[in-house]
Design a protein that fits this description.
Elements: H1 6-26, E1 31-32, E2 36-40, E3 42-45, E4 51-53, E5 60-66, E6 68-72, E7 78-81, E8 88-93, E9 95-96, E10 102-108, E11 111-131, E12 138-140, E13 144-146, E14 149-155, H2 156-159, E15 165-170, E16 178-183, E17 205-207, E18 210-215, E19 217-219, E20 223-234, E21 241-249, E22 252-257, H3 259-262, E23 268-274, E24 282-286, E25 297-299, E26 305-313, E27 316-323, E28 325-328, E29 334-338, E30 343-349, H4 351-354, E31 363-367, E32 374-380, E33 382-384, E34 396-403
């Protein structure tokens, strides 16, 4: 049986070997074998964080010569060095980091013209875009956005024309106030989305990237109004401390009511908050039901009130040595015989105010109006001090005046 058709079997075996050698010589489609042309991506390296590329990077065709079965074409790319890039258009040379055993014998294109722009920041307001209609019998109040502005980072050319960001909120079928957090988006003056050279990559960023929107949905016949908050306090901070500021958060709130009820309602008092013996800042949460509202007026849904009491160091004293005392308004025909000696004084103020205070910032003087030649003691001193600085005691000085000497012939 094994000896039958030996010639045919030998020819078949030979063809099998030749086919195996052919397959092995072809290699994997992901390996570099022989002279081939590839389309590879172009990447930028060395771009400073303060710069951005405003041109879409093209693909590059490269013809490689050589064999490296261990290399993968998926790891093959072209690159440009932008470490020395400057704003504006400029041509940059394209290079390919070829694997060992291969070399690039043709590159199309070999250079590319790119436009670079500097990255800047800008604070712009947030504009709510409301879509849809509320349920039957309801209407929309004035939307409130928190925060009302965001910091946008991006190319200077785009920021120069960007005057707002938008946040979109749908009120379709709503029968109650909507409170929602939504991301901001970037639109041009025609309302179209702003894209960079590569639409899949964001060229603008905002901080914060999302904002809270409160959109009152109220029964028809009611009105809404924004009123500022006023805060009061009771008590005093701990010894050596002072109340630096009392801040309501938010600074104003939206209330609902009839037009008649809202007429003349221009501010809302909350508090008082007790700051007795406080040694550091404290935030007070104010319960809505404890705030006295006029009849017929209510808060919008989601209203949260708080008061921040900022506590700082109290007034301290500081001694300033050698302050010069001027003699002003000396009468005609008089000269200073004995000037007033520099004095040491004590001033009071907050630590930050007194920290860098020097004698050059303080003016002391006595008024010599209507005085004749002679000696003067215990004369009251006048002063001018920097803002926030006081002098608890009034210094007194002595000096003397003499008649103006007339030189003889």
């Amino acid at each position: 049986m094994f000896r039958r058709n030996l010639g045919l079997k030998g020819i078949s075996f030979l063809f099998a070997i030749l086919f195996w050698l052919f397959v092995m010589n072809q290699g994997s489609p992901d390996t570099l074998t022989g002279e081939q042309t590839y389309t590879i991506p172009l990447v930028a390296r060395g771009l400073p964080q303060t710069m951005v590329v405003m041109t879409r990077l093209p693909s590059v065709r490269v013809r490689l010569q050589g064999i490296n079965p261990s290399a993968n074409i998926k790891d093959l790319y072209a690159e440009i060095d932008l470490s020395a890039g400057v704003p504006g258009e400029k041509s940059y040379t394209i290079s390919v980091n070829t694997p060992p055993g291969t070399k690039a014998i043709d590159l199309q294109p070999s250079e590319v013209t790119l436009k670079l722009d500097s990255v800047e920041e800008k604070t712009v307001p947030v504009d709510p875009v409301i879509t849809g209609n509320p349920a039957e019998g309801y209407e929309l109040g004035i939307p409130l956005v928190k925060p009302s502005a965001v910091n946008v980072r991006g190319p200077s050319a785009i920021l120069a024309t960007l005057d707002k960001v938008v946040v979109e909120v749908s009120v379709t079928g709503a029968n109650d106030t909507i409170q929602i957090s939504r991301p901001v988006s970037f639109r041009d003056k025609e309302g179209k989305p702003i894209f960079g050279p590569d639409p899949s990559v964001d060229i603008l960023s905002a901080y914060p990237s999302s904002v809270d929107v409160i959109n009152p949905v109220i029964l028809k016949g009611l009105s809404s109004k924004m009123v500022p908050l006023k805060v009061t306090s009771i008590g005093t901070p701990a010894q050596g401390k002072v109340l630096s500021s009392l801040v309501a958060s938010p600074a104003s709130v939206q209330v609902l009511g009839t037009a008649q009820a809202l007429k003349g309602f221009d501010s809302l008092n909350i508090g008082p908050v007790d700051i007795s013996n406080l040694t550091e800042n404290k935030t007070f949460q104010i319960q809505n039901e404890k705030v006295s509202l006029p009849p017929g007026i209510t808060f919008t849904k989601g209203t949260v009130l708080s008061v921040i009491a900022q506590i700082g160091p109290g007034v301290i004293q500081k001694e300033i040595s050698g302050v010069v005392v001027q003699i002003r308004n000396i009468g005609t025909g008089l000269d200073i015989d004995q000037p007033a000696s520099p004095v040491d004084i004590v001033v009071e103020g907050l630590p930050d105010t007194l920290k860098n205070l020097t004698s050059d910032q303080i003016q002391l003087w006595v008024d010599a109006s209507n005085q004749e030649a002679g000696s003067f003691t215990d004369v009251k001193v006048y002063w001018q001090l920097p803002p926030g600085v006081t002098m608890p005691t009034t210094p007194q000085v002595g000096y003397s005046l003499k008649a103006h000497e007339v030189k003889g012939e």
